[in-house]
Amino acid sequence: MIDLKGKVAVIFGLANKRSIAYGIAQKFAEAGATLVLSYQSERLRKESEQLIEDLGQTGTAKAYQCDVANDAEIDALFAQIKDTFGTIHSVVHAVAFAPPAAIHNDFLLTTRDDFRIAHDISAYSLIAVARGAAPLMEAGGSILTLTYYGADKVFPNYNVMGVAKAALEATVRYLAASLGPRGIRVNAISAGPIKTLAARGIGDFSKILDAVTERAPLKRNVDQSEIGGAALFLASDLASGITGEITFVDCGYNITGL
């Protein structure tokens, strides 16, 4: 059993119980980690506090506001974490966004501003978060982000998000090289499709779910718990020699042709 007692894990992007980040937070909490949740704006504060209660971390976990598009808020977040916990051991970056028009419209119609926003929130924010976290990871640790197979292959109605995820995966590799000398590992999980709030914005999402069920070697889709288990492994000392990798947790869908 993986033991994270005494470890502090900072999780960005835990929006609700249906999010992939919630499955990760559950596994971390079960392993004994102390959680720090980051919520985007004041209107999400109460929901984050409720999630702490649901995860059984009342009195130990903390929730702080941080919009990852704002460097000042990132700096303020890690200053608060330093004052409260001193050190962190894991960071989970489960943040992605593209304007709806850039998802729904033909890719050729992607505007310059929508392209910029998608890459800023979905890819650059990992760099910004890693830069803030690194000084508090004095003993090394794990930084983990979430990607999707749409970074490699064209999926209908994924559009600019697929390009942003490709940038995110390259960012993982370059950050792994940059932070490796400090003992900080950087990896990504390429999760299979799950019915999250974010997934609702992808047209014909049910067809993607059906395709995975039909073609994946395991003949089913993944669930939050399975992604959480992979994240727990990658954050633990069992994965001490793994960095810069994209780990697929998709029931094997990515290995199939026809």
UniProtKB/TrEMBL annotation:
Annotated metabolic or biological route of this protein: Lipid metabolism; fatty acid biosynthesis
Gene Ontology annotations of biological process type: fatty acid biosynthetic process
Keyword Signal tagged: no
Catalytic residues, chain numbering: Y148 (proton acceptor), Y158 (proton acceptor)
Keyword Oxidoreductase: yes
Residues annotated to bind substrate: A98
Binding positions for NAD(+) per the UniProt entry: G13, S19, I20, Q40, D67, V68, V95, K165, I194, K195, T196, L197, A198
A single MF term (Gene Ontology): enoyl-[acyl-carrier-protein] reductase (NADH) activity
Enzyme class: oxidoreductase
Swiss-Prot/TrEMBL keywords: Fatty acid biosynthesis, Fatty acid metabolism, Lipid biosynthesis, Lipid metabolism, NAD, Oxidoreductase
Catalytic function, reaction form: a 2,3-saturated acyl-[ACP] + NAD(+) = a (2E)-enoyl-[ACP] + NADH + H(+)
EC number: 1.3.1.9
Family annotation (InterPro entries): Enoyl-ACP_Rdtase_NADH, NAD(P)-bd_dom_sf, SDR_fam
The family this protein is said to belong to: Belongs to the short-chain dehydrogenases/reductases (SDR) family. FabI subfamily.
Protein name: Enoyl-[acyl-carrier-protein] reductase [NADH]
